[in-house]
Amino acid sequence: MKTIGELGEDGLIAKLCAGLATSDHVIVGPGDDCAVMGDGENLTLLKTDAVVEGVHFLPDEKARRVGWKAVARVLSDFAAMGGKPGELLVTIALSPQVSVGWVSDLYEGMTACLGKHGGVIVGGETTSLPVGSPTIISVAGRGTVRRSQMVTRAGGQLGDAIYVTGILGGSITGKHLDFTPRILEAAWLTEHFQITAMMDLSDGLAKDLPRLSLMSKCGFQIDKKALPLSEGASIQEALGDGEDYELLFTSAEDISASWGSQFPNLRLTKIGELTPGKDHELDGGWDHFNR
Amino acid sequence: MKTIGELGEDGLIAKLCAGLATSDHVIVGPGDDCAVMGDGENLTLLKTDAVVEGVHFLPDEKARRVGWKAVARVLSDFAAMGGKPGELLVTIALSPQVSVGWVSDLYEGMTACLGKHGGVIVGGETTSLPVGSPTIISVAGRGTVRRSQMVTRAGGQLGDAIYVTGILGGSITGKHLDFTPRILEAAWLTEHFQITAMMDLSDGLAKDLPRLSLMSKCGFQIDKKALPLSEGASIQEALGDGEDYELLFTSAEDISASWGSQFPNLRLTKIGELTPGKDHELDGGWDHFNR
């Protein structure tokens, strides 16, 4: 019998999702940044995302930054659908030996992020783990998106330009904790342009772009020399480091000119285009089980 | 600095919830079985709940039963508000050494429960834990409740009778894995009677009844000899074992007569009443951090 490590993350998810039932008002099921459901113009987004001590943050990291990250990752996924945050639930699994101060600071970081970017915490739970277990913070919740602004990973068309916001690579030096979920940017993009496909970059461009192109039934071609590099990052790091939490999206429209006047402090880079190719491989990126 | 273990679960939750912001359309925030939000007659329930290997299930337990339990716990909370299941997200945190077959069986158990009681899985995530870590399954999601049928823990009135469904105690022999979420029963109760307060029994009557009475600003008096005992269970076990997943509710109406013809195979027992007393203590029950 295969282990999870041998099968890998994408393989596992594909296997688990294959047999799932659905219901009439589910518009987008498993496999995108969020699930989408509802009728009418205002749709509901559902998302869950966890951070694990030793995987997503170091044991001696400031709890406030961990809290920010735990919430911002979910907000980043709402943004990736063109949506906005609503109500969140927070699950904390931890050893009884963790200090109350650490958990208070964690909540401070979460509420700071929500105060800045929208959304409220409406519940959750705490559950105990054996002494010595890694602390886990799982954030689940509801966002909203207007039907006219909803973007999935699946709508990319042949010839569409591929864009990324911000700069890529080297997030381990700090950005992976303190990043800005691109809610405003996604709202502006989806209001003013025909964005055909979008996702947030969590596992690295090398892992995430193939996912988007596969769901859009296209290949892709990128100009690696055009990648917007973080200071000191190599092209390979920009492709593979992950945790950039920038938007990756496609459009047939030229967005760069208006972008500059709207968001003068955030780069937007056209890095390539969707092609008829069937090659979905790019070297690098992060697999949760198969490292 | 105090540890979580010293503060205890209820103390920790109270501390964390004290400073939370809210928003206009949140009707019930942290502290009840579910959060409730929305406008109009059809409201949204949000809930998250996790099961942990070694705490909620033994390492050698059949994965199918674990999956059933993980989902049924959340459905039981929807029932406790008078609601029904909608769309769920499943987070699995586990070591790469877990077999793919185990996870497949887990999903089988989850979908079996949903197939029987309603609700669909629309997404989730898998995340890796260090080798040897306990497996954690967290289920979050959305339910629905009609405003006219919504019941919180806070509406109990002086003199209301206190009822429990089913039998209590000894769930460790199997029921804690295979229980039936009381969705049908709660729907019938809230449609036909004025149910003033309700919750599901997860930590044991001794822990849960004081929570309900405290939120309803009442005391309580129960007849311990009237408690409906599972076969072989003592009164103390019925009070303290936990994981009964039965409904605990209050009403000024006499429900027992019509109950018997509606649900002939499930007991309903009047165990006491809400009083002006201020005593919220009952000996027993389960605290996640302070055992």
Q: For the residues shown, what is the average pLDDT of chain A?
A: 93
**Chain pair sharing the greatest interface:** A-B, 75 and 75 residues
Name given to the CATH architecture of the largest domain in chain A: 2-Layer Sandwich
Assign the CATH class of the largest domain in chain A. Alpha Beta
Biggest β-sheet of chain A: count, sense, barrel?
6 strands, mixed
Reading the helices and strands of chain A in chain order gives HHEEEHEHEEEHHEHEHEHE
Shape of chain A: globular
CATH topology of the largest domain in chain A: 60s Ribosomal Protein L30, Chain: A
Number of helices of chain A: 9
Features:
homodimer; Phosphoribosyl-aminoimidazole Synthetase, Chain A, domain 2; 60s Ribosomal Protein L30, Chain: A; alpha+beta; 2 domains; five-stranded antiparallel sheet; globular; six-stranded mixed sheet; 30% helix; 291 residues; 9 helices
